[in-house]
Amino acid sequence: MSELLDTSIKERLWHKMRAYLTKFVPEIANNRLLMCCACGRFLPQDDFDLEHVIPQQALREDPLEVRNDPATPRNVRARNILLCRKPLLYKNSPLHGSGCNSWKGKHFDGPIADILSGRAVTKSEDKRLYNTHIIGGLILGYLAMVEEFGYITTLMKSGLLLREQFFNPHRFHRNLGSRYQILLSGAPATTVDDPTWSKPFTFKLEHDACYVTARNFVITLPISRDPLAPIAHHLKFAPSRYKMRPDFGTSLT
Ligand SMILES: [Zn+2]
What string of DSSP letters covers 116-158? Predict the structure, then answer.
């Protein structure tokens, strides 16, 4: 039952994400490919897998009443996107035997589950978070932004920085400012009526930052433009310099 549900969610996401990407890359309307929002490869549908943005190991730790609540099934609590499962190569040599989906699981799902459960702080001897937790939080924030705002998150300049961070799980990217290396976390929710079960992410945009709240933590992500600002997709000519006022250029020369 749950596998069937996952298949239909995967199919729906495939069409939704392709429609969104077509706005920026019209060429894909004529093929059957999608860009992986982590590695950037254009791949066919079979090379993608459903990705639970809130990792499955964290979902399994949710309170029993929440897991049994028909209003908050696993896929609602997780939020989903597609990530590739095709083996990763670096300079034509194997980097990882599977794709970005498994890479996220290997490097980030553990640290993310530790923050979401509150363990990251309680288990740590000096009660602080480590870089792997903060980088895990950044990656979760990036994927949540892709789910919320679509491919603009990936295609703007800050998206490239975050994608490079995805493949550098232990050290902060050299161009990532210190304000983006901070994660604030609190105790996880325990009551069944907590709104974060059905809406795990909220976003607050500023001119160069997006504050992503993921259940019990907040992380700041760099953005190089407002993802909600409209983009001219079919503008062939730049607007005239004198568009809003009379142009006396020809009469004066
Ligand atoms: Zn990928």
Answer: HHTHHHHSSTTS---HHHHHHHHHHHHHHHHHHHTTHHHHSHH
User: pLDDT tens-digit profile of 167-179?
Assistant: 999 999 999 999 9
Q: Where are the domains of the chain?
A: 2-252
* φ, ψ dihedrals at 80, nearest 5°: -125, 150
Residue 11 CA to ligand 1 center (angstroms) comes to 18
Q: What is the pTM of this model?
A: 0.89
Spell out the alpha helix ranges (H) of the chain. 2-24, 56-59, 64-68, 74-78, 100-107, 109-117, 119-122, 131-149, 152-155, 157-166, 249-252
CA of 209 to the centre of ligand 1 (A): 25
CA of 73 to the centre of ligand 1 (A): 27
Report pLDDT digits (tens) over 214-235: 999 999 999 999 999 988 766 5
- The CA-CA-CA angle for residues 125, 126, 127, to 5°, reads 95
State which residues have CB under 5 angstroms from ligand 1, the bound ion.
Answer: 36, 38-39, 84, 100
